[in-house]
Each structure stands twice: as structure tokens, then as C-alpha cells.
Design a protein that fits this description.
Blueprint lengths: L1 H45 L2 H56 L6 H11 L17 H9 L1
Length: 148
């Protein structure tokens, strides 16, 4: 037991040292980036006001361009998801139609028995109000349940 605990302690110590090294590296990189930003800021302060405004505008344009690209990617992703959901909806609508057609083709002698089963399964209606919260991965199940 003592050896096992000692081995676990050494493993934890090794993992801790690795994490500390990774954090030190990350801190060094961030410190270098901070120094570069400070130098750029000091250089900017030494420039004329017109040039400062121009640099500020260029930075804002760059930021807005990056933001627009991110929004375009999001839009494309949402459009792709919309197409996928529309295809699923068509499939489910087809299944519902096929099911309804099969129900209308059921012989008359079987229908009263089915009606009795439906009466037994009826649920008490509830008055729901508000928003629906769900996880993204549960979306196909939610859509399927809404359709049925």
C-alpha cells in the first residue's frame, strides 16, 4: 500500500511539475506579448495625432473584418443546419403521411379496438407557458417529438 501511495504521489508530483512548466511557458509568452504591445503603444504615442487616428481606424477595421468573418462562418453553419433540419422534416413528414395512409387502409374490424386503445392512452391536457430550454444534441429528438 505504501509503495502504491508513493507511486501515486510521484505521478501527481510529475503531473504538477509538467503543468507548472506549461504555465511558466504560457506566462513567458504572455509577458513577451505584453512587452510588444507596450512598445507598440509607446511608438503610437510618439506619432502625430493624425497618424494615431489612422492607426486606430485601421485597427478597428481589422477588428470589424474579423468579426464579420466569424459571423459569416456562423451564418454558413446555421444555414447548413437549417438545410439538414428541412431534409429531416421532409423525411418525417413522409413517414407521417405513410403512417396515416396505413391507418386509413386498416380493415374496419380492427378500428374499434384501436379506438379503445387510444381512449385509454389519452393524457390530461396541460397549459404550458414560456420558453423551451434544451441541449443542442437533443434537438433531433425534440423535432421528432414535435412532429409526432
Amino acid at each position: 500500500v505504501l509503495r502504491l501511495l508513493e507511486a501515486q504521489l510521484q505521478e501527481q508530483r510529475r503531473e504538477h511539475e509538467e503543468e507548472m512548466e506549461a504555465m511558466r511557458n504560457q506566462m513567458d509568452l504572455m509577458q513577451e506579448e505584453l512587452e510588444n504591445q507596450q512598445q507598440a503603444f509607446l511608438q503610437t504615442l510618439q506619432l502625430s495625432p493624425e497618424v494615431q487616428v489612422e492607426l486606430g481606424l485601421q485597427q478597428e477595421i481589422t477588428r470589424l473584418t474579423n468579426e464579420n468573418l466569424d459571423l459569416k462562418e456562423l451564418l454558413e453553419k446555421l444555414e447548413k443546419n437549417e438545410k439538414k433540419l428541412k431534409k429531416q422534416l421532409k423525411i418525417y413528414m413522409k413517414k407521417v403521411q405513410d403512417f396515416e395512409e396505413s391507418q386509413t387502409k386498416v380493415p374496419v374490424e380492427r378500428r374499434p379496438h384501436e379506438r379503445n386503445m387510444q381512449v385509454a392512452v389519452q393524457r390530461k391536457e396541460k397549459d404550458f407557458q414560456g420558453m423551451l430550454e434544451y441541449y443542442k444534441e437533443d434537438e433531433p429528438l425534440l423535432v421528432r417529438n414535435l412532429i409526432t
